[in-house]
Amino acid sequence: MVRKVEIKTDKAPKMPFSLPQGVRAGDLIFVNVAPIDINGADIDDDFEKAARQIFENAKAVLEAGGSSMANIVRIDAYLRDYGNIEEFNRIYLEYVPEPYPVRSISQPARTPRDCMCAMVVTALVD
Questions:
Q1: Across 3-116, where does the E strand assignment appear?
Q2: Coil, helix or strand at residue 28
Q3: Which segments in the chain show pLDDT lower than 70?
Q4: Could you tell me the pTM of the whole model?
Q5: Residues 116 and 80: beta-carbon distance below 8 Å
Q6: What residues contact 95, with CB distance under 8 A and at least 6 apart?
Q7: Which of 10, 15, 28, 89 has its CA 20 to 30 A from that of 65?
């Protein structure tokens, strides 16, 4: 039977709304990330900083769970303003190596905490 285990690390901020930083289930890791710095402050004044923060947070949680950015198989990204897609893609390419994962990007009616961007990442365990 596959067990579900919460992933916690002090190298990434705690998530709001009682969300775990990540969950490991068998050989898969699921990660929630938002543009929150290590001190818990929202990054809401600069899209590039916000996007880099979500990738840094994802990296920290994946590594804490025994994985890496190279093992990502799916990314669901949420942008408050779809006009930021080109900048998001540029930053994405700096963090995510080939072969690229399956990915969806959407602009929801509202993002959690009205953040500029957020992601849910699924990765394989190393």
A1: 4-7, 22-25, 28-33, 72-79, 102-106
A2: strand
A3: none
A4: 0.94
A5: yes
A6: 55, 58, 59, 69
A7: 89
Instruction: Say whether domain 4-124 belongs to CATH 3.90.550.10.
Output: no
Supply 36's token pair: 């929150």
Place of tokens 């009616």: 109
d(CA 83, CA 74): 22
Residue appearing with tokens 């710095």: 37
Spatial distance between the Cα atoms of 117 and 56, rounded to a whole number of angstroms: 13
All structural domains of the chain with their residue ranges? 4-124
Angle at 97 between CA 95 and CA 100, to 5 degrees: 110
